[in-house]
Amino acid sequence: MLTPFHIAVPVRDINEAREFYGSKMGFSEGRSSDKWIDYNMFGHQFVVHLDETLGKDGSVGQIRNAVDGHGVPVPHCGVVLQMQDWQALADRMREIIDDFIIEPYIRFEGEAGEQGTMFFTDPSGNALEFKGFKNIEKELFAT
After folding, report:
1. pLDDT, tens digit (0-9, with 9 covering 90-100), for 87-125
2. SS3 annotation, 80-142
3. Which fold has domain 6-52+59-139?
4. What is the pLDDT of residues 74-83, one digit of tens each?
5. Residue 26: how many CB atoms within 10 A of its CB?
6. CA pair distance 114, 56, nearest whole angstrom
7. Among 134, 132, 133, 126, CA closest to 101
């Protein structure tokens, strides 16, 4: 059994993060305070922490590296899903994300490690990637 990860990211506004991760993305909220919120991101503990140095209009900086003809933001985090769950998430995100960094598509099509992928940011600029595989066990680390 895979154990859940824990990751914490900075956000510029707790209420904005609550609207995005809770209301829009549909992640259930766990413990919280006026400075942080725990979310259940597909069984993993994803935590947003208020970073007052960002200011209301600030965002987290990032660089981009070329992968499969796209500029992949670094750093980024997300979850690997079964393909049908990824497709359902991609359909839902198309309804709420105005500007994808990388629109949902199939990367490495017909090659080892073929995967659905999409990248977008939360309102604070944290880059998120969600991947989908037809067979995670065989394809996740395929070379």
Report:
1. 999 999 999 999 999 999 999 999 888 999 999 999 999
2. EEEHHHHHHHHHHHHHHCCCCCEEEEEECCCCCCCEEEEEEECCCCCEEEEEEECCHHHHCCC
3. 2,3-Dihydroxybiphenyl 1,2-Dioxygenase; domain 1 (3.10.180)
4. 999 999 999 9
5. 11
6. 39
7. 126
